[in-house]
TrEMBL record:
Recorded superkingdom: Bacteria
Pfam families: DNA_pol3_delta2
Entries under InterPro entries matching the protein: DNA_Rep/Repair_Clamp_Loader, P-loop_NTPase
Protein's UniProt name: DNA polymerase III subunit delta
The species this protein was found in: Cryomorpha ignava
GO terms of biological process kind: DNA-templated DNA replication
Length: 379
C-alpha cells in the first residue's frame, strides 16, 4: 500500500510522513476513526514508508528490496494480529495468517464482517485472545531480520478481550528498541483506559462525499451522479461504497422503494404498505441495511431542508422533488420520530429478525406518526 493509493486522509498522511522525517515515530500508535475510512491502509502505507530504503518526500520508492516485499505484504519485519473465530484447535491467529495477508493484499479496505464470513461457515463473532497476546509478545522479542524496525499491526484492536489487553500493557509501555506497534480500531472507547494512555492517538479523517465519489468514478465504471448518491449513503465508509458499486446497486432503486413505502404510510393504506414491504423484504440483508441508510440520509437532509434551508440539503434530483412534495408533512411531523423508526429498524436488520414483519411494523409506526399530525406549510 502506498500513501498515494489512500482515499483522502491528506492531513494524517502529512503528519505520519513528518514523524518519520523528524525521527519522532512513537513506539505505540492508535489509529482510530469511522468505519471503512482507511485506517488499515494508512497503517500499511506508514509501515512501508518506514521500511523503504529510498523514500521520497511523499511516499515510498516502490523499487527497493523492502518495497518489493511490502507490495505483497511479505516483509519479514511486518507482523499482524487480527480477530479470528476461536475453536478447540485455533487459539491464535497463526493458522489463518497466510489467508489474512493474502486477503488484505487484495483489499486493504477489508470489512470485519466480510472477514468473519470468510473464515467461519457459521454466523460467529471473532475475537483476539489472551493466547494471541502471548504470541504477540513472543514475536516482538525476536530480532529484526533486516536490522531496522519491527512493526506489528493489530487490526480491530477493540476485539482484544480484557485479559488479552492486560497482557500487552508492559509491551506497550516498554517495547524492544526499534519496535512499532500500531493498533487499528473503529472504537477506541472499547479499549481499556490503560491501553489508550500508553498509545499516541492518530485520528483518521471522515472521507467526504466529494472525495469518496471521485474515488468511485476513478476506480469503478460508474457515473458521477450515482457515485455521489452512493457516497452519501456510505457516509465515509469506502468499504461499504465499493461493495455497493461492485454489486451494481443504484440509489434509484432505493429511492423508488422508499418513496413508495412513505406514500403508503402517509395515506395509511394497508395494502400499499404490504406491497412495499414485500419488495423490501426480498432485498438481501446488506441491501436492506443500505435501503434504511438511504432513508436515514433522506430524513437527515429533510431536517436540514425544513429547519436550516434548502441550500444546505444535499438531495439528488429525484429525492429533491419528493422532499418538496412531502415538505408540508415533514415540517409538521416529528422528523426525529421517523429517524428513530428507521434507526431502530437498521439495528434489528443486523440481528437477522424476520424482515417482512419488521418492515410492516415500521410502516405501521410511520403511518401512526403521519396520522397524528396535519400538513402545514411554511410561509
Amino acid at each position: 500500500m502506498y500513501f498515494k493509493e489512500i482515499i483522502g486522509q491528506q492531513a494524517v498522511k502529512t503528519h505520519l510522513i513528518k514523524t518519520v522525517k523528524q525521527g519522532h515515530v512513537s513506539h505505540a500508535l492508535l489509529f482510530t476513526g469511522g468505519v471503512g475510512n482507511g485506517k488499515l491502509p494508512l497503517a500499511l502505507a506508514f509501515a512501508g514508508y518506514i521500511f523503504c530504503e529510498n523514500k521520497s518526500e511523499t511516499d515510498r520508492c516502490g523499487k527497493c528490496a523492502a518495497c518489493k516485499k511490502m507490495d505483497v505484504l511479505g516483509h519479514p519485519d511486518l507482523h499482524f494480529s487480527f480477530p479470528f473465530v476461536k475453536t478447540t484447535s485455533i487459539k491464535t491467529c497463526n493458522p489463518q495468517m497466510r489467508e489474512f495477508i493474502s486477503t488484505v493484499a487484495k483489499d486493504p479496505y477489508l470489512d470485519l464482517r466480510d472477514w468473519e464470513l470468510q473464515i467461519a461457515s457459521e454466523n460467529k463473532k471473532s475475537i483476539i485472545t489472551a493466547d494471541e497476546s502471548n504470541e504477540i509478545v513472543k514475536r516482538l522479542t525476536l530480532k529484526s531480520f533486516a536490522g531496522g524496525h519491527k512493526i506489528l499491526i493489530i487490526w480491530h484492536a477493540d476485539k482484544l478481550n480484557p485479559s488479552a489487553q492486560n497482557k500487552l500493557l508492559k509491551t506497550l509501555e516498554e517495547p524492544e528498541p526499534k519496535t512499532l506497534i500500531i493498533l487499528v480500531t473503529d472504537s477506541a472507547e472499547d479499549l481499556l483506559p490503560t491501553i489508550n494512555s500508553r498509545t499516541q492517538l492518530v485520528q483518521c479523517e471522515h472521507i467526504s462525499d466529494e472525495v469518496m465519489a471521485n474515488a468511485l468514478v476513478e476506480r469503478f465504471d460508474t457515473d458521477r451522479t450515482n457515485a455521489l448518491n452512493i457516497a452519501r449513503i456510505a457516509d465515509g465508509d469506502y468499504a461499504k461504497a465499493k461493495k455497493m458499486v461492485a454489486a451494481n446497486q443504484s440509489t434509484s432503486k432505493y429511492f423508488e422503494l422508499f418513496s413508495q413505502w412513505m406514500r403508503a404510510a402517509a395515506t395509511n393504506d394497508y395494502y400499499k404498505i404490504l406491497t412495499a414491504c414485500d419488495k423490501i423484504s426480498k432485498l438481501s440483508r446488506d441491501e436492506q441495511q443500505n435501503f434504511l441508510e438511504y432513508g436515514l440520509q433522506f430524513f437527515h437532509q429533510s431536517i436540514l431542508y425544513a429547519y436550516v434551508g434548502k441550500e444546505q440539503a444535499r438531495f439528488d434530483n429525484e429525492a429533491a422533488g419528493f422532499a418538496v412534495k412531502f415538505a408540508p408533512f415533514m415540517v409538521s411531523n416529528d422528523l426525529a420520530g421517523f429517524h428513530d423508526i428507521l434507526s431502530d429498524g437498521h439495528y434489528m436488520v443486523k440481528r437477522n429478525v424476520n424482515a417482512h414483519l419488521l418492515f410492516m411494523k415500521m410502516g405501521s409506526d410511520m403511518a401512526k406518526l403521519f396520522k397524528t399530525r396535519t400538513p402545514q406549510h411554511n410561509s
